[in-house]
Amino acid sequence: MNKLLTGSNRDMYDATIDRMFEIIPDMMSRKIPEANVQQAFVVDTVIELHTSTFENENCFALCVGSYDDTAYEFLDKLEYSLVAIDPSINYSLHEYKDLTTGHFKTIFSTSVIEHVDDDEEFIRDICELLDSGGVAILTCDFNDNYKDGDSVPLSVVRQYTRYDLEVRIPSIISDYGCHVIGDVNYEGEYDFEHSGHVYTFATLVFKKE
Fold first, then answer.
1. Whole-angstrom distance, CA of residue 38 vs CA of residue 4
2. Coil, strand, or helix at residue 63?
3. Is the torsion defined by CA of 32, 183, 51, 105 positive or negative?
4. Alpha-carbon gap, residue 69 to 72, rounded angstroms
5. How many domains does the structure of the chain reveal?
6. How large is the angle between the packed helices 14-23 and 36-53, nearest 10 degrees?
């Protein structure tokens, strides 16, 4: 569950990516092919964990950062019951957290957290919105060599390191009764290049007791 999404495991998601091209071809054709693995991971994990969590098919999942997100659009086409938020459309996560009294068994966010100024607030808000037994599914830009102030792609605030994903964020979520699910392995090659920056993608999946 908590790993890098690199070339060595990208083939695992080919079938999901192919299915996404069948269902939302126009949207998928606009995306960087090598980056589609993130959305495919989110789709597979939401389907696996959301389905196993709920017997009631009408239970809602929350998508944080829904604008132009192929994972959201694909799951919506499959008629999953979704609540979609995005500052480009309606609310930021923090705004929505203060407006709603609801809680969710599934919250997913694809490659959003690295664009957020206050990522610790972002994580705390997700924890507060998770229901007991709920699961959060995130992906992010990963570069274990990243240091504060290093150059990053346009609109990205930071990239994530093993310290962030293995120490800093787990220490935040533990205050809310949350813990990372399963094995953790952030070893692997950096095989994605964008705007002159070489990095890769990582996943972060955690559960609230």
1. 10
2. strand
3. negative
4. 5
5. 1
6. 90
Q: Which CATH number fits the domain that encloses residue 56?
A: 3.40.50.150
pLDDT by residue (tens digit) across 147-192? 999 999 999 999 999 999 999 999 999 999 999 999 999 999 999 9
Residue 203: closest CA among 126, 102, 110, 105:
110
Q: Any residues with CB less than 8 A from the CB of 55 and at least 6 apart, and which?
A: none
Confidence of residue 103 (pLDDT cuts 50, 70, 90): very high
Domain range enclosing 122? 2-208
Q: What's the CA dihedral at 36, 41, 42, 43 to 10 degrees?
A: 90
- In a 3-state reduction of DSSP, which class is residue 53? helix
